[in-house]
Design a protein that fits this description.
Layout: H1 2-24, E1 33-40, E2 51-54, E3 59-64, E4 69-74, E5 79-84, E6 90-96, E7 101-106, E8 111-116, E9 122-127, E10 132-138, E11 143-148, E12 153-158, E13 163-169, E14 174-180, E15 185-190, E16 195-200, E17 205-211, E18 218-224, E19 227-232, E20 237-242, E21 247-253, E22 258-264, E23 269-274, E24 278-283, E25 290-296, E26 305-306, E27 313-317, E28 326-332
């Protein structure tokens, strides 16, 4: 009887914790988005990681991490026009239109790979640490910065030669990295310290470190519209800072495991894609932002890229049905636009 009583108490405690957790979780809100297409993609039902878009050339690049391939799509026809193979565990990807170059992190090989945007030809491969992930391009130096997540460093790459020129230690795990054009500086999440490291890209020295309060594991990062948006995947928040001083403006409650952030600047709309498949949208007219929707879009819809000219958002997912990968394409509802 004592054992039964103890089990009952334990069960009640667990249920109580679950109920309390649910009560503290923000309620879902319908997304102010409409799905305009779901496009089949080649490959297996495996993880995608990052995406980037060259709006002027109508090109979308998707890192199919589980397949070790980079897909290039024409956004006018929503068709795959090229596949770059032999990119083991491809994670980060950025396109630099002025150079006609695409840079991808092949984490499984510890490399950053330089690709010709027009021909999808691999131009160079270079070492980039133990787990290269997010990337950022610095136009004032002509260099690409790559976060080595496990190694806790930034690898600095000459964008024209595709070869590394420096390594900058961070003192903790490297989260996402972004260029702040207004301050001509690099911002990078140090996710095991819940800090943002501010780096001079010319001297490659850390100028300062800004704490990210009320954040558990700052992984995601976006710099846009005079603000920095930091995704905290340990406690499901986005902390908003004013630039250049990194003064906290407020916090947004988002889906479980926020990962990739993107902005639609014309419509002042922020997208936060989470590992749970939940997507959060926020109106950016208020300084700290205002959540306008938060709901499950698709399983593993943790990646998003937005076309600033059309407002279309692109979410690659491993399975859109029958075990086949696909691309969910949405557009903001008229009534949901700021």
């Amino acid at each position: 009887m004592l054992i039964i009583g103890a089990v009952a108490v334990l069960v009640a405690a667990v249920i109580g914790v679950q109920v309390a957790w649910r009560m503290t979780r923000p309620a879902s809100e319908p997304l102010p988005l409409s799905t305009v297409a779901t496009v089949p993609l080649p490959g297996h039902d495996s993880r995608f990681d990052y995406a980037d878009l060259d709006a002027g050339a109508h090109r979308l690049f998707l890192a199919h991490m589980g397949d070790g391939t980079l897909l290039e799509l024409d956004t006018r026809t929503n068709t795959v026009i090229a596949t770059v193979a032999d990119l083991p565990t491809v994670t980060g990807v950025i396109v630099v239109p002025e150079l006609h170059r695409v840079f991808a992190s092949a984490a499984g090989a510890g490399q950053v790979v330089t690709i010709d945007e027009d021909t999808a030809t691999v131009l160079a491969r270079a070492p980039a640490g133990s787990f290269p992930d997010g990337l950022a391009y610095v136009p004032t130096t002509g260099q690409v910065w790559i976060s080595d997540e496990d190694g806790g460093t930034e690898t600095v790459l000459d964008a024209r030669t595709g070869q590394p020129v420096a390594t900058v230690p961070l003192g903790g795990e490297a989260g996402n990295v972004r260029y702040d054009p207004a301050g001509d500086r690099i911002l990078v999440d140090v996710q095991t310290a819940d800090q943002i490291a501010v780096i001079d890209p010319h001297t490659r020295t850390i100028l300062s470190r800004a704490p990210v309060p009320d954040c558990d594991h700052d992984h995601g990062l976006l710099v846009a519209d005079g603000r920095a948006f930091v995704g905290c995947d340990g406690n499901n928040k986005v902390i908003v800072f004013a630039l250049p001083g990194l003064t906290e403006l407020g916090a947004l409650d988002v889906g479980d495991g926020p990962d990739v952030l993107a902005i639609d600047p014309a419509r002042q709309l922020l997208y936060v894609a989470a590992e749970s498949g939940e997507v959060t949208t926020a109106d950016l007219r208020p300084a700290a932002g205002r959540v306008t929707g938060r709901a499950h879009l698709a399983d593993n819809a943790h990646v998003v890229a937005v076309d600033p000219t059309t407002g279309r958002a692109y979410f690659p997912v491993p399975d859109t049905g029958a075990g086949r990968p696909g691309l969910v394409i949405t557009t903001p509802d008229q009534e949901g636009q700021p």
